[in-house]
UniProtKB/TrEMBL annotation:
It holds the Pfam family PHAF1. One of its GO terms (cellular component) is dendrite. This is Phagosome assembly factor 1. PANTHER family: PHAGOSOME ASSEMBLY FACTOR 1 (PTHR13465:SF2), UPF0183 PROTEIN (PTHR13465). Belongs to the PHAF1 family. It comes from the Eukaryota. One of its GO terms (biological process) is Golgi to plasma membrane protein transport.
Amino acid sequence: MLDLEVVPERSLGNEQWEFALGMPLAQAISILQKHCRIIKNVQVLYSEQTPLSHDLILNLTQDGIKLLFDATNQRLKVIEVYDLSKVKLKYCGVHFNSQAIAPTIEQIDQSFGATHPGVYNAAEQLFHLNFRGLSFSFQLDSWNEAPKYEIPHGAMVKRMHIYTGNNLQETRAPAMPLACFLGNIYAECVDVLRDRAGPLGLKLRLLTAGCGPGGMTDAKVRSLERSIYFGDSCQDVLGALGSPHKVFYKSEDKMKIHSPSPHKQVPSKCNDYFFNYFTLGVDILFDSTSHLVKKFVLHTNYPGHYNFNIYHRCDFKIPLVIKKEGTDSQTEDCILTTYSKWDQIQELLGHPMEKPVVLHRSSSANNTNPFGSTFCFGLQRMIFEVMQNNHIASVTLYGAPRTTSQARPESSSSSH
């Protein structure tokens, strides 16, 4: 049985690990994978058709704990303990719930100090006792006439919630805590830079936890802006973003058959390679001969996609160039985001002329993909990978063909 420390408005955990409010989904899953011998039978709950309308939930069925993640930013919003008989809980090092200690109203008063009268919810037949960042719900099955303010003696805690602020219904996932950075950089948002013809590069607003000489005591989250462009060298990208988490060499180009060039059947001597930045949700493809950027891939990390939980969600914005019928002028008043759906995009950009490329993903060891195929559509030097629920799984951006002698566009953030 797990023995966990409750920290109101912050976390639930022990000496080895901690689920902290604001923690990214991928980190929570990595804790569960690391401790899979102790924490078993975890369910991932999400809405397949409307993934943004419901929280993304990790349900630790064996331990009676649910972790609720905000569907949009995928950070931990609420920690719910829904079965207190399956877990030991302590506050400031002292147990208030274990096999020997029942979580009665008297025990909660003693451990936390009663500050407010309880709030009775007739529909749920539950009394809620609220502290800042922590609430307890008491079961009232055996009382016919529930008192309106005072929780009856001996009432037992049925559920406990940890969250930020004073109101569980209105709580939001907080910013990512310092302890979750672990030396990585994260992208707060990614803007696609473009001209009339198509994408030119990316402007990334990055978050990093910089430490001063005093270590974590001086640490604070810093925000920086970096821009990278098609035609940038490996050194440019390493200077702007630091080392990638992984370098991946392409063994074959599955999309090559769809390219118009006649030499597509000629095998190349060396392979193009990707820099994978998992915490940014971005891949950058370099040409094997020139070592210059030729492609960016932005990942949305929707549950139900084959690559789910490999990348953090990339919160991108792509300005679209819309041709107005009957006029020569173009307007750029429309922004496509991570949360746009394919039918909305088609209404703006028009339907692609060619049929989509169907993408069947499967690992080499296991030829099944439980999530089904995705469809790839090309428009304005971008390839949109569309899931069966009409959401975008990834966007691949291509640069205009250009020579190495062309100057790199200067950006306003190049003074760093």
